[in-house]
Write a structure and sequence with these properties.
The protein is an alpha/beta fold. It has 3 domains: about 50 residues, Rossmann fold, CATH 3.40.50.620; about 170 residues, Ribosomal Protein L25, Chain P; about 120 residues, Ribosomal Protein L25, Chain P (Beta Barrel), CATH 2.40.240.10. The chain contains 7 helices and 18 strands. The strands form 4 sheets. The protein has a 7-stranded mixed beta sheet with strand order 3-16-17-18-14-15-4. It has a 7-stranded mixed beta sheet with strand order 12-9-10-11-5-8-13, with no helix packed on it. The longest helix has 15 residues. The chain starts with a helix and ends with a helix.
C-alpha cells in the first residue's frame, strides 16, 4: 500500500523529483508502473541517494524514538541527538547545516561522515556572527591585594576582534575576580604559561597580575583562593617597560558577575558506529558523560538580559547558546561546540 500511495501522492502534489534513500531503488519499477497505468497524472521521477550517516550518533528515527521513549534523552529537542530541534537548541545555525550539506554532497555510496566535520561548519559560522564575552565555568577566586576594596575599574572590551560594528561593552574590574581552575597550577610543567606562584599573567582587557600566595583549606588541603598583586601601569594589557608576559587568561568580577548554569555536551555514544554490532543493544554504547551540568558558573554582567537561542563565544572556552529553560533569575547556557576539536586528541590518546 505504501508503494501504491507513494507515487500517486507525489503526482497529485505536483512533485517533479521524488528523492529517496537507496532502499527504495528496488521499488522504482513499481513506482513507475503505477503511474503508467493512470492517465492524466504527471509522472515524477524517483531518484535515490545514500542516507546521511554521522559517527558517534544514530540517524534512524526508530532508534531515536527508542531513546526518547526510554527517557535516555530528554525528548526530541535534546541537544545531544541529531534532530533539527535538538541541533537548534544546542546552538547550531541553519547556515552551518546548509554549508555542511553542500560540502558533503549527494552520493550513492554508503558512507559515514565524521561529526567533527559538522562541528567545524558551525565553528566557522559562529566565529563570524557571535559576540565575544567572558565566563568562568569552574571558578577559582583571586584576591588582588593591592587593589582598593571599594573601587570598580571599568574596562572597554570589544564584542568582536574583527567586526567593530558589533560595538563593545564595559567590563568591571574589582579587587576579587574569578579565573578558571585550569588557569592556575601549583607545580606546573615548563610549557605552562598561565598563572603560577611567583609568575605573571595578563588578564584579558585588564592588567598584568602576579601570584604571591596560595591559600588552602586547612582540612582538605584544597586551594581556596590565590592572592595576587596587579601592575597599574599595564591597563588594557600593555606593558610599558617591555617585559615579556606570555599568558593571557579570561576572568570575571566576583561582585559584578552573574551566576549561571552551563551544560557541556559531548558525543552521545562512545562507539564510532553504535549499531555496528547487531548482536548487542546499541544503547549499551551510550556515553555516560554525554552531558555535564555545571551549576556554579559565572558570566559577565553584560549577559544579564539574554534571550533563548542567543549565541555567544565564551572566550577561550567555546560557543554557547542560551537554553529555552533559561530565565533572568537562572541563566542557562548550552555549549554548542568547543573552539578546537578536543575529541580528536582524546581518541588519539
Amino acid at each position: 500500500m505504501y508503494d501504491y500511495a507513494h507515487c500517486i501522492s507525489d503526482a497529485l502534489e505536483n512533485i517533479t523529483h521524488s528523492i529517496c534513500t537507496l532502499e527504495f531503488e528496488d521499488h522504482r519499477p513499481l513506482y513507475d508502473w503505477f503511474l503508467n497505468q493512470l492517465e492524466n497524472l504527471p509522472h515524477p521521477k524517483q531518484i535515490e541517494f545514500a542516507r546521511l550517516n554521522l559517527n558517534y550518533t544514530v540517524m534512524s528515527k526508530r532508534k531515536l524514538l527508542e531513546l526518547v521513549e526510554s527517557k535516555l534523552v530528554n525528548g526530541w529537542d535534546d541537544p545531544r541527538i541529531p534532530t533539527l530541534v535538538g541541533l537548534r537548541r544546542r546552538g547550531f545555525t541553519s547556515q552551518a547545516i546548509r554549508n555542511f550539506c553542500e560540502r558533503i554532497g549527494v552520493t550513492k555510496q554508503e558512507s559515514t561522515v565524521e561529526m567533527g566535520y559538522l562541528e567545524e561548519c558551525v565553528r566557522e559560522d559562529l566565529n563570524i556572527i557571535t559576540p565575544r564575552v567572558m565566563a568562568v565555568i569552574r571558578p577559582l577566586r583571586i584576591v588582588i591585594t593591592n587593589f582598593p576594596e571599594d573601587k570598580i575599574d571599568y574596562l572597554d572590551a570589544p564584542y568582536h576582534p574583527n567586526d567593530p560594528n558589533m560595538g563593545s561593552r564595559q567590563v568591571a574590574f574589582t579587587r576579587e575576580i574569578y579565573i578558571e581552575q585550569d588557569d592556575f597550577m601549583e607545580n606546573p610543567p615548563k610549557e605552562f604559561f598561565r598563572l603560577r606562584l611567583g609568575q605573571e599573567v595578563r588578564l584579558r582587557y585588564g592588567y598584568v597580575i602576579k601570584c604571591n600566595e596560595i591559600i588552602k583549606n586547612t582540612v582538605t588541603g584544597n586551594i581556596e583562593e590565590i592572592h595576587c598583586t596587579y601592575d597599574s601601569a599595564t591597563r588594557g594589557g600593555n606593558i610599558p617597560d617591555g617585559r615579556k608576559v606570555k599568558g593571557t587568561i579570561h576572568w570575571v568580577s566576583v561582585k559584578q558577575a552573574i551566576k549561571a548554569e552551563v551544560r557541556l555536551y559531548d558525543r552521545l555514544f562512545n562507539a564510532t558506529n553504535p549499531t555496528a554490532n547487531k548482536d548487542i543493544d546499541f544503547k549499551t554504547n551510550l556515553n555516560p558523560n554525554s552531558v555535564t551540568v555545571l551549576s556554579e558558573c559565572f558570566v559577565e554582567s553584560s549577559l544579564s538580559k539574554v534571550k533563548p537561542e542567543e549565541k555567544f563565544q565564551f572566550e577561550r572556552l567555546g560557543y554557547f547558546c542560551v537554553d529555552y529553560d533559561s530565565m533572568p533569575q537562572k541563566l542557562i547556557f548550552n555549549r554548542t561546540v568547543t573552539l578546537k576539536d578536543s575529541w580528536v586528541k582524546i581518541t588519539k590518546k
